[in-house]
Amino acid sequence: MICGIKLLVFGEDNLKKLRDSKLLDFKPYKNGQKAVFNGLHFYLYLNLCKIDGSMHKFKNGGKHNADNFTLPEFSEVIYDLSETFEIDFYLAKFCHLEFGFNIKLPFPVVKFLASIILYRGKITKYPSHEKYGIRFEFAEYDIKLYNKSDQCKYADENILRIEIVIKKMRRFHQKIANISTLGDLASFKVWHDFVWELLLQYDALVFLGCDTDIIELRKDGKITDAEAKLLIDGQKPYFLNDKNRMKRKQNFDEFKRLIDTHSSSEMKDFVRTFLIRTLFVFKLEVSRQRKQSKERRKSVE
Q: What predicted TM-score, i.e. pTM, was given to this entire model?
């Protein structure tokens, strides 16, 4: 689930081990040195080393991140990094994080992406500047949904990638346990909280099914002229620009009601069900671990 990450490694002993590693072929880069190993980019400076890349790709020898990446595999990657470079990567600080899922859909990914029209007041532009899908950008995080099958030759057909890019941890510390190191991420509780956050953001997406024919709905008398106009205007950039906040909210609420009534939610529900099931699995594991912890404490007493 966790893929892209940016790490910071400090300490003269750690930097020397990286500098002297036979696996890292450092070349001059800007005001430091750079090396690439199994999908990770190492930027070595005087007092620190920045590591940027995909731990998921590292698991696959740097080739791809098209398959699943479980928590046990994530923990194994941390262990492998620590063993490979003789550094305790469990204590490495991270300053950027991407988490999400590769989901196999029973329908074309392009059809799913084309049905997304709004997210928290932002109008979807598909295809957007993202080559394979959609990216909603905010100051502290981004939401990405794209066609993994088109992006990666190793992926099966109709693979959707949905993820949150955390650019600033401040917002997420309010919702997720106070985490700062790579080792902190190797926890079912943390992954459960990540999935919950992803589900909340996913529910903020507004879908209008590609098979929703507004003209036919009006002809059949299922909607009025005013409702037809609202469904059309709701897909335009100026829709949420009304300066009157109450009027803006009324328009959006009515627009959402019309969509919920007249547009199929099959595609949206499929992905939502996947996220809910995953959340439930992590919740069970967290409960199991808490129970084991209580039993251990009782046995010590």
A: 0.84
